[in-house]
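User: I'm putting together a small comparison set for a docking exercise, and I want a reference complex before I start. The sequence is below, and the ligand is 2-acetamido-2-deoxy-beta-D-glucopyranose. Could you produce the 3D structure with the ligand included, as structure tokens?
Assistant: Of course. I'll restate your input first, then give the structure tokens for the complex.
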Amino acid sequence: MRPAVLSILSFLPLFAAAEVSVAALKNIRSNAIPHSYLVEFDKANAMGGKRSVSPHEEFYKHMDKHGAAYTVRQEYNEHDLYVGTAITVSSEKELVALSKAPGIKAITPITTHPRLHPVSKHIVTGPEDPVVPKDVLSTHVMTGVDKLHEQGKLGEGIIVGIIDTGVDYTHPALGGGYGAGYKIAMGYDFVGDSYNGTNTPMPDDDPLDQCAGHGTHVAGIIGANPDNGFNISGVAPKATLAAYRGFGCTGSIGDDIIIKALLRAYHDGCHVITLSLGGAGAWTESASAIVASRLTRKGKIVTIAAGNDGQDGAWYTSSPGSGMDVIAVGSVDNTIFPSQNATVSTGFGPITYYSALPLNITEPLPIYATSTDTSVADDACSPLPEDTPDLSGYLVIFRRGACNFTQKLANIAAKGGKRSLVYNNLPGLQVVQLGNYTTALISEEDGAYLVNQFKAGHNVTVSFPQSSASYGLPNPVGGLISDFSTYGPNNDLYFKPAIAAPGGNILSTWPVPLGGYAVLSGTSMATPYVAGSAALLLQTLGNTEDTARRARSIFETTAVAVRSNITEDSPVQTLAVQGAGLINVYNAVYYDTVVTPGEILLNDTATFDGKHTIHIKNNGKKVQTYTLSHVPAGTAITMNGIMPVPGPLPLTKQYATIGLSQTTVTVPPGMTGIVTAKFQPPAGVDPKTFPVYSGQIRISTVAGMSLSVSYMGVAADMGDMQIFDDSTTFLNATLPVIVNRAGIPQLGEATYTFEGYDVPSIVYRLAAGTPVVRFDLVDADCKIPDYGGAARKRSGGGLFKRLRWLFAQVNKTHDEDDSSFDDIPVIGTILEIDYASRNGPPVAPSLNASDTSSFTGLSWHGDFVNGDTVENGSYRILGRALRIGGDPTREDNYEAWLSPVIIVNKSS
Ligand SMILES: *[C@@H]1O[C@H](CO)[C@@H](O)[C@H](O)[C@H]1NC(C)=O
Ligand SMILES: *[C@@H]1O[C@H](CO)[C@@H](O)[C@H](O)[C@H]1NC(C)=O
Ligand SMILES: *[C@@H]1O[C@H](CO)[C@@H](O)[C@H](O)[C@H]1NC(C)=O
Ligand SMILES: *[C@@H]1O[C@H](CO)[C@@H](O)[C@H](O)[C@H]1NC(C)=O
Ligand SMILES: *[C@@H]1O[C@H](CO)[C@@H](O)[C@H](O)[C@H]1NC(C)=O
Ligand SMILES: *[C@@H]1O[C@H](CO)[C@@H](O)[C@H](O)[C@H]1NC(C)=O
Ligand SMILES: *[C@@H]1O[C@H](CO)[C@@H](O)[C@H](O)[C@H]1NC(C)=O
Ligand SMILES: *[C@@H]1O[C@H](CO)[C@@H](O)[C@H](O)[C@H]1NC(C)=O
């Protein structure tokens, strides 16, 4: 028996949490905009041909003819890129009409992507420092951009489009104005201040942002003018910028807006397009990732943040950075902390404190220590003693530790203390959050000196020079990958991120009303760095589509891989988190040898292809001899059973081996040398830990040129990765689980009236991403075969098959193929999600849980995705998830789960 027609034609957004009066279910993810779909028209239809009506009109006519109720959110009309519409339907019943419309290529629910919150933020509020040493340009020294600036390469003639929160173009370092002739020459506001990702956008022509800030920071990293008070400079300060505002003051951005902005940036002639945004995706196939990827094929360079989820481990890359041909960017910590020096009346010091700008203290202050014990554990954690003097005229010195800074500063403020220095209880300095107090962190040693002076009764004052005291304090982990940077690869094993750039501790512009300058950390900061670098590349190598298409490979082959730790014997950091390494723009622009490919995808053991060819083209004027060697990176252990290993991922020294056809190659000018490489995955690793191995083939010359080809693979079969969490970590019941209105797991048969909240809710956790997860209603006596063990391994064919599930269903029936998926009779489909990300790490749900990604839940109110409604009877819910790399038409390529019996007993 075949399932009811159209039963799998659509996807139901996750309605959950809010509707269920169950505390436990609050911890549920919902990133789809209710009832909203992207409808892409297929090419033949979109091209129009002889027809006089647009494909859009034709589509609306069809919908109207079928009496469908819908509103149009956006229209897209960029031939070869995306022609279609974004609509909101009044109910999922309208999908029946929608699916029958002619000439449709794909229908996708509209998901939202969160803004990437900076990992740490320090808003600089003090006066400008007129003399700042060149140290602030440390990021440019790290990447060779300083040398390009010296040569006058500043990005002139290149247009960089920024899709973000908008830009405060009134900022003097960003040109102080908007429109032709200004740095921010064009743009658009697609959303308005109050847009939050799901409500109605209020577009206008003005992309000004003075409430969010993120896009202003991004714009400064690309193009801040150097003649500002800080002597910071954008990577491409002469580039022209376009500001596309897709975020309101708070909240997320919908895929419909991202696509609109991508097409506008293309239409406006941007050469580089950058997006510091994304959310867990991990597949190349999200709607905006696909469009972003298409733009690269049209000769645009697209840079997208890799994400700030490093602590959540592997298999969690952000979309749309997961797009196939885009450049996903990871973050490297700045080699310095932007700091200031204070002077001491005794001549000691100077004392360096962590602050981008001087503390706003203009007269020398005597010191007061809250404790004379320099090893006190809980200094100022309790209210200060009765006999404490009025501290308003003092600089208060206190020690870090035991309780948070807010508590200490409140106790000091209770005694009138307004200005203070906190000394460290750890070596060196770290980035700390001190709110808006006039205070800063100093080192353990400097604190001990001041406390001992106070103890000895010496009359010591400390001054805070308001100029000429900026200092680039060396950061011990500077130059290493930032711990927040997201790990790749994608579930479909694409090389993500592609490269890394400075993103930790970055000083840049901030909206004028919010302070003017800020130090932020995140891959949001690394991404515009690469966008600016791309502008320098285009300016120098020629602003052509060919240069743009080669950009990723050029940046990859000239990047410099970094170690995993500061110690000499630490292995090279896994390429799963750094891509090919830290970008070196000078080498990218000036090396006269071109190596391809930039990346070799070795995939998993089931799809392993170990033989690859490397091309070395000598564009120089002299014969070159190249030496080839293997530089392995640490093999990353990514899974512990069904739990992702949290970052930083442990690295082992079990490396792949490579046989090279030659280890030296001599290539005359204009010629290409060819070397073949035969890879062997590492031996002795445990496939159950899904080890990701990686490394580089280094190609160097005696003159010091060093290029590399990066490779990555998984020493396991991705089809073995378990998808449904079947543990009892949630609600003390085996997952997936049905819960009732009280949040109690349903273990045996149960009856629901479907009145109000008396409905079953499905709760599950995806331990791994899946190309398709689907829940169907089936008969109570339905039997599913046990696909346990080897039998449920994926079939040989259809590896990494791209699916357009909906598209496939609309355009062909399964009768035509040898599909086994439809062998189980289905009454109706409750939910289908394609290219689902794994869930976040499991967190015990609680009323106040802010992490909403750990579990997914769906309260089922009795409707199927085709708009039909369930009738009274006895049923079960069948959940199926396609294994990674599996064949969607084969039942045994899915994991299956069957619920206890659900009795539907509606009174009407
Ligand atoms: C610095 O402090 C003084 C006095 O407390 C205050 O008037 C001034 O506005 C502050 N300046 C800044 C830039 O915060
Ligand atoms: C967005 O705003 C709308 C209307 O103001 C509100 O109903 C909705 O809950 C908000 N969504 C989010 C994610 O904050
Ligand atoms: C600091 O600690 C106090 C007391 O434990 C707590 O109430 C407060 O929320 C904490 N503040 C921050 C910013 O963590
Ligand atoms: C500083 O923080 C306090 C307490 O959180 C707040 O009341 C005050 O408005 C803040 N001031 C500024 C300028 O942000
Ligand atoms: C401490 O030094 C300050 C400034 O150097 C001076 O004004 C003050 O009188 C001195 N106090 C004592 C007790 O010596
Ligand atoms: C700042 O202080 C450090 C010592 O902490 C010193 O090495 C550096 O030269 C000083 N820089 C300036 C600009 O005063
Ligand atoms: C780096 O090495 C230091 C010192 O050996 C160690 O304390 C730290 O945990 C290491 N960090 C990582 C991420 O492995
Ligand atoms: C490896 O994976 C990539 C990306 O999924 C795919 O294009 C390629 O065909 C795969 N190679 C093999 C040998 O399966």
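DSSP finds 15 helices and 46 strands in the chain. The first helix runs from residue 43 to 46.
User: Thanks, that's exactly what I needed.
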